[in-house]
């Protein structure tokens, strides 16, 4: 019952990862999923027929609320998928739709409307309702609020958080906006060029980052008080291509602390430096990095 | 507060206008709709607005299209032309004062009857009238038809005449117009056999239009299915399908049509010939739609809603026919309205050459056959009058298609208001 923030700055790694765990087979690697009976399976290795029963448990929220709804189908028809998965029968879908709509803060009467009759926030709510239709255990939210206005973002985030607590589901929340990640996450994993570089509890990560990349990201968060001056760390250069990553630590060309030979030659492993705090950095133990309020 | 009471009045008026059950139903729903997990009160204005928005009926797709369609004058004109042609074809018997298939050799090649309002003495009559036609021999032994102006024959409407069956079922003998007595009315003259050209044109519309519709229907069915398969599966399927489409497109259409139509055995019954001809037209015209649909599907299959459908576990068939095809509907409708005139033209061309539809079936093309000899046409130009029906049909469908293209394409696509909003928002962010 945790929500995971995947703070994935490298756009390349982000989207295919989320989409693939839902619809495609990744070319390599594994997607592990713990079933209700406790056994672990590698979703990446299953055939599409074997995945179908799992789809009910793992759902996805899309980034763009404008393209993720079929413009030619009313909300009601769109939810009929519930019947395909045999979780509802006969007229039940309609009642279920009404219930779902209430759950995400929309009203029953909207059921017969087409997507173009809704605002972005409403559309995203519909997207969330769609996700909930099959009562999943795991929701992968791929930048669900990045296409929305800030005020609407807050509404949708509150909704997601409420639903997470009420329905007791796990949320993997992918975002690039730290304030969003901070708001919703219990644990945060920071990714750089397709790899997790740091992973720990949300508060711990923001207060005491152990990876130089995290430190740079945290420094970019504007404080709510305009009088507070922060030391922004500006990273030099661009995100390298994941097709041709730098040798050793992928971050070393842009890292201001990288001085060791190891940084250039040896790829650091994700290690548990402190209890519950995983970092992939050779210097993790030696550096004293600044977090928020630090 | 003053404005509060004002709102209450509006609200009461609104509630009065609705059945009680409706209001109860609305009330059953919790009101504060906006993110009210924190329990913020929603202002009365907002509540009123929300209530109102809940009650407004959403617009169906057809309503949206109609609203845009109404604005396009040319589409309205096209629609009216097409509609009147269909009405004339369906009620052809009602519109022809004389049996359009009965031979009447003594009245061959009568020029179109002139409608008069003013008689010989210069007196004006509200009701139009005609004169009796009499044949006079010229000095060179040719016969011409002239008006006998002695007696006026006023035109009567809804007059009983020859017996026919409405829709092939209901026996009737009422016709739109006619004249009493021994005068005749041929609005577009008569052909070689003394048959009313106007009545025959209406009758011919049945064959020409149904063949065009039937052929287009087959063509649309084949084209959209091939297109959606090709676009959705992509890769090798798409490659092979597109090469096949190109292969079909590279046929010289007219000669192939002629060849195919020419090999239909004359011993076949009329209906079989009709169906075969429609299929022949369809077989060569589906490629345009297949291309259009494929292009649209190629773009659509990358969108998130298709991914969402896949993620929900929808089958390929469901995605193709429940999501992709409905989204290409505007393209399909436009291509449909452009295929119809093509088939009308092709049919009249083949019939004109004497292949395809044969007598006693009558189409606009077979009517044109009578105008093949220059001499006949020179003396009796009205026997080519079915050409106006062809032109009207082709132009009507083209206008209609043009109008539909304008109102269909952006009505409900994602590139509508929402995308525009996002774009302006992005622009604001970047500036």
Tally of helical segments of chain A: 11
Main β-sheet, spatial strand arrangement of chain B = 1-2-3-4
Q: Mind telling me the C-alpha Rg of chain A?
A: 21 Å
Q: What's the domain count of chain B?
A: 3
What's the CATH class of the largest domain in chain A, please?
A: Alpha Beta
Q: Do you know the CATH architecture of the largest domain in chain B?
A: Orthogonal Bundle
Q: According to CATH, what is the topology of the largest domain in chain B? A: MetI-like fold
What oligomeric state is this? Answer: heterodimer
CATH H-level superfamily of the largest domain in chain A: P-loop containing nucleotide triphosphate hydrolases
> What is the helix/strand order of chain B?
HHHHHHEEEEHHHHHHHHHHH
Q: Architecture of the largest domain in chain A, CATH level 2?
A: 3-Layer(aba) Sandwich
Q: Shape of chain A from CA axes? A: globular
In terms of topology, how is this protein built?
The complex is a heterodimer of chains A (294) and B (431).
Chain A: E1 3-8, H1 11-22, E2 32-34, E3 40-42, H2 48-55, E4 58-61, H3 75-78, H4 81-84, H5 92-103, H6 120-132, E5 138-142, H7 150-167, E6 170-175, H8 178-184, E7 187-192, E8 195-201, H9 202-207, H10 212-219, H11 261-265, E9 271-274, E10 277-279
Parallel strand pairs in A: 1-6, 1-7, 4-5, 5-6
Antiparallel strand pairs in A: 2-3, 7-8, 8-10, 9-10
Helix pairs in contact in A: 5-6, 6-7
Chain B: H1 2-16, H2 20-28, H3 44-55, H4 61-71, H5 73-90, H6 92-95, E1 116-118, E2 124-137, E3 143-166, E4 170-179, H7 197-233, H8 235-249, H9 253-262, H10 270-300, H11 304-311, H12 316-327, H13 329-352, H14 364-369, H15 374-379, H16 386-408, H17 417-430
Antiparallel strand pairs in B: 1-2, 2-3, 3-4
Helix pairs in contact in B: 1-3, 4-16, 5-7, 5-16, 7-8, 7-10, 7-12, 7-13, 8-10, 9-10, 10-13, 13-16
């Amino acid at each position: 019952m945790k929500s995971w923030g995947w703070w994935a700055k490298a756009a390349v790694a982000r989207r295919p990862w989320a989409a693939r765990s839902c619809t495609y087979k990744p070319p390599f690697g594994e997607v592990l999923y713990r079933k209700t009976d406790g056994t672990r399976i590698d979703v990446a290795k299953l055939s599409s027929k074997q995945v179908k029963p799992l789809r009910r448990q793992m759902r996805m929220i899309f980034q763009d609320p404008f393209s993720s709804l079929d413009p030619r189908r009313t909300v009601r028809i769109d939810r009929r998928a519930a019947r395909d998965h045999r979780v509802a029968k006969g007229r039940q879908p309609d009642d279920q739709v009404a219930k779902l709509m209430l759950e995400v803060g929309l009203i029953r009467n909207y059921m017969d409307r087409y997507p173009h009759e809704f605002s972005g926030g409403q559309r995203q709510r519909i997207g969330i309702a769609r996700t909930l239709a099959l009562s999943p255990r795991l929701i992968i939210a791929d930048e669900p609020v990045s296409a929305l206005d800030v005020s609407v973002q807050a509404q949708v985030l509150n909704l997601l958080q409420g639903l997470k607590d009420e329905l007791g589901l796990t949320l993997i929340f992918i975002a690039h906006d730290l304030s969003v990640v901070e708001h919703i996450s219990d644990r945060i994993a920071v990714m750089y060029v397709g790899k997790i570089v740091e992973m720990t509890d949300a508060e711990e990560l923001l207060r005491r980052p152990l990876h130089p990349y995290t430190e740079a990201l945290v420094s970019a968060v504007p404080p709510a008080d305009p009088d507070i001056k922060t030391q922004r760390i500006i990273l030099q250069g661009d995100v390298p291509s994941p097709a041709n990553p730098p040798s050793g630590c992928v971050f070393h060309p842009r890292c201001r602390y990288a001085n060791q030979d190891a940084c250039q030659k040896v790829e650091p492993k994700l290690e548990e430096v402190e209890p519950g705090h995983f970092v992939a950095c050779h210097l993790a133990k030696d550096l004293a990095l600044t977090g928020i309020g630090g | 507060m003053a404005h509060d009471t004002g709102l209450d009045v509006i609200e009461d008026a609104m509630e009065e206008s609705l059945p009680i059950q409706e209001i109860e139903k609305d009330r059953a729903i919790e009101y504060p709709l906006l993110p009210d997990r924190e329990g913020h009160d929603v202002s009365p204005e907002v509540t009123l607005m929300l209530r109102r928005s809940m009650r407004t009926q959403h617009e169906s797709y057809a309503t949206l299209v109609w609203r845009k369609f109404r604005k396009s004058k040319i589409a309205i004109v096209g629609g009216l032309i097409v509609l009147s042609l269909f009405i004339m074809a369906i009620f052809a018997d009602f519109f022809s004062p004389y049996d359009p298939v009965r031979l009447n050799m003594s009245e061959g090649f009568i020029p179109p009857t002139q409608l008069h309002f003013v008689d010989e003495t210069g007196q004006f009559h509200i009701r139009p009238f005609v004169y009796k036609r009499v044949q006079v021999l010229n000095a060179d032994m040719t016969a011409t038809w002239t008006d006998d102006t002695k007696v006026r024959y006023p035109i009567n409407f809804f007059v009983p005449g020859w017996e026919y069956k409405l829709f092939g079922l209901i026996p009737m003998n009422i016709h739109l117009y006619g004249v009493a007595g021994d005068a005749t009315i041929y609005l577009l003259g008569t052909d070689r056999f003394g048959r009313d050209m106007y009545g025959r044109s209406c009758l011919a519309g049945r064959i020409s239009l149904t063949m065009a519709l039937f052929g287009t229907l087959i063509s649309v069915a084949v084209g959209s299915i091939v297109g959606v398969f090709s676009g959705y599966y992509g890769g090798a399927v798409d490659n092979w399908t597109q090469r096949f489409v190109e292969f079909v497109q590279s046929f010289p259409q007219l000669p192939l049509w002629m060849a195919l139509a020419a090999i239909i055995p004359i011993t076949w019954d009329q209906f079989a010939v009709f169906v075969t001809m429609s299929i022949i037209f369809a077989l060569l015209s589906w490629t345009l739609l297949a291309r259009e649909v494929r292009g649209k599907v190629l773009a659509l299959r990358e969108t998130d809603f298709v991914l969402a459908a896949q993620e929900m576990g929808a089958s390929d068939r469901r995605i193709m026919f429940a999501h992709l095809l409905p989204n290409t509907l505007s393209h399909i409708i436009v291509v449909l309205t452009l295929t119809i005139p093509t088939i009308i033209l092709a049919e009249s061309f083949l019939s004109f050459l004497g292949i395809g539809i044969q007598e006693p079936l009558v189409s606009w093309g077979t009517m044109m056959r009578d105008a093949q000899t220059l001499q006949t046409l020179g003396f009796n130009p009205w026997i080519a009058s079915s050409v106006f029906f062809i032109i009207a049909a082709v132009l009507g469908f083209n206008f209609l298609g043009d109008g539909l293209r304008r109102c269909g394409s952006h009505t409900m696509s994602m590139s509508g208001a929402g995308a525009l909003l996002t774009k302006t928002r992005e622009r604001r962010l970047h500036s």
